[in-house]
Structures are given as C-alpha cells and as structure tokens.
Amino acid sequence: MTQALSNTVEHRARLLLVEDDAGVRRSLQLLLHGRGFEVRAYASGLALLADPTALDAVCLVADYRMPEIDGLLILTRLRELGWRGEALMITAFPTARVIDQALAAGYSRVIEKPMAEAVLVEAVERVMAAHHDPK
To answer: pTM score, two decimals?
Structure first.
C-alpha cells in the first residue's frame, strides 16, 4: 500500500451502526459511507459485541428498540469492554423516559426517527470533528 493511501485509510473515522431494520440500516450505512466514514453495520447488538474490532471505533449510532438487546444495554456492554467513544441513539420512541435513560447511559444525543438525513450526518460529523481535535 502506498504511503498516501495508507494515510487516507488510517485517518478515515470508523463508526458503528446498529439497526435491526435491514432497509434503514443499509440506507444509513450508504449515507454515512458517502460522507467519508468507515461504517461497520450490524443487524443486532449481539453481533456488534461479538466483533473484536468494534472497540476501535470512534462513534456508535444505535437504534433504541431492537430484539435481544436494546441500545441502552449495547452502550453499557461496550463501556464494560473499555470502549470510550461517543454514542448517538436513534429511536422512533423518543419519550421523555427513553431520552433520560439514554442520556444517563452515556448517549450524547437522541435523534428521532424518521429523521432528516442532515440531522444524523451533522451529529456524526460533530463527534468525528471532536475526536480529531480534542480539547
């Protein structure tokens, strides 16, 4: 691999996307990939937690309500494994209780579905910018 290509690959920010709806997952994956992010997409939280490379990611975008394990528990388990990235939750059920639980669990933002693509992209770009320019 050439040095220039190696630097480009190394500097691509990786994010994790967990969404059980295949169509939504693929659409979000394509959207974020098109914005220059390396996206690892998973159909379930258990699949993400089984991937040892997940801990290298900078950002998590997780759906709240999924079978087997919800978005709150996904972040809790990642933290237990030592992951220190930033997390964004997406949900079609943005009740005050869900939002409070998400923020208490460590999510920095809860984004309501259906969402404007720009809202998610802007939130992810802020996370990535903060990662590359730590205060």
So the answer is: 0.87
